[in-house]
């Protein structure tokens, strides 16, 4: 039996755009004569992946600079949490035992949504006291629902600029409505999106979440541990969740991280605690 090793283990951009080989072969002059920068089929070829990387790095960089965005606070967390208002509506409308149980869980988890919303508001309120862009910190999220929506919403409701770095997914994730005009971006490559999460980040605030939140969190911790980036506060909101999901102390005891590595992480319960930690770190007024 012949081995069935994949040629490529990534979803290519041609697959994502559903382009067929006939569309990328450019055998007709009408196709080959196009400007390279105006030729979607050519830009979607495997050979141009480096150009696409560069474009995904460059586009947000230029636009954020034009909007005066120099510093951000990146907020991670579950896409599945809803506001207290929405959770209470679910409780009222639940009919079956399964629906009632699901609604009660949503109501419990809504505390994290409201906390992230409050955190966004605290950051935005600070920005109102600052005249210089160089002194402002802007909420930056993955642009989707749940905790991302909540943090964007808190800042948006205070009239502040707020940023969303969305990602193309098999089940498409649409930008939440609380991202400022001109500051909603869409990425195909997780690597470039995560790079932008970090480039201007002056703090990371992580709420309870799933695989995506853990992926982003541990990448940040690794970058700081290996001194690839300057140390910034990494704040985990919800002590019981984080202590139960990740036994950091056991990692130290087992010898896979050092005791000093624990100084990277700060555990808090509330939005106010998270913001106070950032204020103290940077000596903000």
From TrEMBL:
UniProt xrefs under PANTHER family: CYTOKININ RIBOSIDE 5'-MONOPHOSPHATE PHOSPHORIBOHYDROLASE (PTHR43393), LYSINE DECARBOXYLASE-LIKE PROTEIN (PTHR43393:SF3)
Catalytic activity line of the entry: AMP + H2O = D-ribose 5-phosphate + adenine
Top-level EC class as recorded in UniProt: hydrolase
GO molecular function: AMP nucleosidase activity
Top-rank taxon, per record: Bacteria
One Gene Ontology CC term in the entry: cytosol
Stated name of the protein: AMP nucleosidase
Region forming the signal peptide: none
Species name: Polynucleobacter tropicus
Enzyme nomenclature, EC number: 3.2.2.4
């Amino acid at each position: 039996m012949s081995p069935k090793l994949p040629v490529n283990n990534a979803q290519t951009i041609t697959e994502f755009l559903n382009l067929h080989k006939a569309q990328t072969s450019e055998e007709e002059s009408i196709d080959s004569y196009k400007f390279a920068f105006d030729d979607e089929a050519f830009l979607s070829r495997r050979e141009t992946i480096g150009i696409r990387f560069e474009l995904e790095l460059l586009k947000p960089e230029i636009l954020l600079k034009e909007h005066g965005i120099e510093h951000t606070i990146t907020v991670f967390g579950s896409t599945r949490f809803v506001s207290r208002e929405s959770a209470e509506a679910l409780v009222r409308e639940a009919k079956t035992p399964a629906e009632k149980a699901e609604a009660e869980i949503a109501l419990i988890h809504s505390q994290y949504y409201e906390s992230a919303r409050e955190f966004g508001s605290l950051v935005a309120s600070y920005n109102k006291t600052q005249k210089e862009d160089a002194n402002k910190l802007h909420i930056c999220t993955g642009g989707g629902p749940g905790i991302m929506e909540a943090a964007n919403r808190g800042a948006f409701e205070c009239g502040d600029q707020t940023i969303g770095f969305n990602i193309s997914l098999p089940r498409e994730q649409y930008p939440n409505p609380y991202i400022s005009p001109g500051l909603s971006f869409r990425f195909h490559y997780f690597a470039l999106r995560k790079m932008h999460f970090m480039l201007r980040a002056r703090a990371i605030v992580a709420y309870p979440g799933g695989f995506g939140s853990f992926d982003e969190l541990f990448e940040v911790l690794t970058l700081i541990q290996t001194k690839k980036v300057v140390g910034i506060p990494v704040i985990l909101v919800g002590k019981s969740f984080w202590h139960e999901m990740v036994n950091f102390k056991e990692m130290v005891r087992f010898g896979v991280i050092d005791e000093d590595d624990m100084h990277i992480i700060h555990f808090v319960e509330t939005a106010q605690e998270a913001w106070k930690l950032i204020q103290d770190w940077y000596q903000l007024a």
